Structures are given as C-alpha cells and as structure tokens.
Amino acid sequence: MAPSFGRSISFPLSPARSSSSSKEKGKGNKAAARHVRSISLPSSRTHPLLAHLQTTVRAAQPASAPAGLAHIAAVAELLLLLLLLPKETTSSFAEDSSLLDAFLVLADAYGAFQEAVVELKRHAADVQAALRRRDAARLASAVRAQRQAHKDVARIASSSILRNLFIRPPHAPQPLQIEVVEVSGVLAEAVSCIASASAAVFSAVEFISSAATTAAAATASSLSSSSKKATTNIISLVKRKSTASSSSSSSSDNQEKELAALQRLQDLHDCIDQIEAGSDKVFRTILHTRVALLNIQTNNTC
C-alpha cells in the first residue's frame, strides 16, 4: 500500500512580512559577511595588536628613567608591529610624511642623547679618579670637561622639539573610513607618548647629572683652596697652633663634601649604566620603524 502524503497549501506572505523577512535576511548576510571578513583579516577596531598598543600608550608612565625607557621601547615595538601589518588602513596613514618626519626627530634626539651621555660618563669617571687621589689640578680639569658634557645633556633635555612633536591626520579621501580614523588616532597618540616620555627620561638624567656636576665643582673649589691654605700654613710657622685647629675643622668639612660628591657621581654612573641598554634599544626600534615607513611608501608608489 503506497504511503499517503498530506498536502499543504502555501500562500504568499504579506508585503509587511516579506519586507521584514528580507531585511532580516539582509542583516544576516551583512553580519555573516562581517564575520567572515573579521576571520580573514581583523578590522582595526577589533585587532588585538591595536588594542594592546592603545592600552600600553595610556598606561601610567614610570617615574624612573630605566622604567621609562622600557615603557617607550614597548610602545615603539608595538607601533612597529602594527605598521608591518598588510592593511590598507595602516598604510594609508603611513604614507603621510609627518609620521616619517616625527621618527626622524626622535632618531636625531636619541642619537645626540646617547653621544652626550657617553661623554658625560667618561668625564664623570675622570672626576671620581681625581677626587680619590685628591689631585686638585687634575680634578679641576676633569670638572670642566664634565660641566661641558652636562651642558650638552641639559640642552637636549630642555629642547622643546620633543614636547611639541605631533602628527597631522592622514590625507585620505572623503568620506574617511572609521578604521583609518581609529588607526590614525592610536598611531598619533603613540608617537606623542614616545616623544613626551623621552623628554621626561632626558630631564631625569639631566637632573642627576646636574647634582653630580654641582657637587664635583664645589669639591674641586674646596680642594684647591685647602691646598693653598696648606701652603700658607707651612710658611706661617708662627701661627702653627691656631692654623692647625682651623685646618682640622676645614678638613672635616672638605671630607664631607668629597664623600657627598663621590656619592653623587656614583649615582650618575649607576643611572647611565641602567639606561644605556634601554636607550640603545629604543634608538634601534625607532630606526627600524623609519625603515618600515620608507618601505611602505616605496611599495605604494610603485
């Protein structure tokens, strides 16, 4: 016996229901398309690297110079990785010359800062050696050299170039895509973060250098005057007792100044030792970022 199938009659939907169903279907297709696109190439709004960069940029800046350089290096490395992504939203912003100019300014600042710090460290070591030997002539010469090196560091730290560094918005056709706007904002914020944090690090090193240089200069002056007094006391044999008591008190003061100066110089030496590796890392990352920007611009013009 053949099986029987129930018959069903289908009627066309009403215009309202048909339009609503078509809209829902269209929304579903758009959502599916967005889902497929996000799987193949995440949009800038959901890309984890962009979110990580934004979080790192907006984190509280460390107080010490070594920690500040570590924070700058983290931001610079994330920015470099973001520029290396094969995305149109990133490349459109990288084409703007202001970003390339900004990293040229940063590279020049770190190059000059590293040279000045190396000279400052060398002359500070000479001051320490002369102070331990109590060589007044050599100490005066070393202090003059350290003072000149400190002026170079102070000039870099007081420069307004980094503090006024900013990035212009990209030249993109209207209407501007949301992805381009968001990536542009984060990249500009990252560059400003690197510039301001670098200025803070330079100022921190300059502050420690200023304290060490001032203490060394005061000690050199005291040592020079005490040596002159010692010569005068040897000649003035009649006033030996009175000069002996006064020289003992002045000798105690000079020893305190020397110990304080040695401590300041050691603090400067330790500070430079701690920032040398971090500063070099930031400098190399900045150079690599400039190379990446040049490659992006070259590929887009070909």
Automatic annotation (TrEMBL):
TM helices/strands, residue ranges: none
Bias (Low complexity) ranges: 8-21
A family per Pfam: BPS1
Alphabetical GO biological process terms: root development; shoot system development
Superkingdom assignment: Eukaryota
InterPro entries named in the record: BPS1_pln
Segments for region (Disordered): 1-35
PANTHER family assigned to the protein according to its UniProt record, in alphabetical order: OS06G0725500 PROTEIN (PTHR33070), PECTINESTERASE INHIBITOR DOMAIN-CONTAINING PROTEIN (PTHR33070:SF84)
Protein name: Uncharacterized protein
Organism: Eleusine coracana subsp. coracana
Source taxonomy: Eukaryota, Viridiplantae, Streptophyta, Embryophyta, Tracheophyta
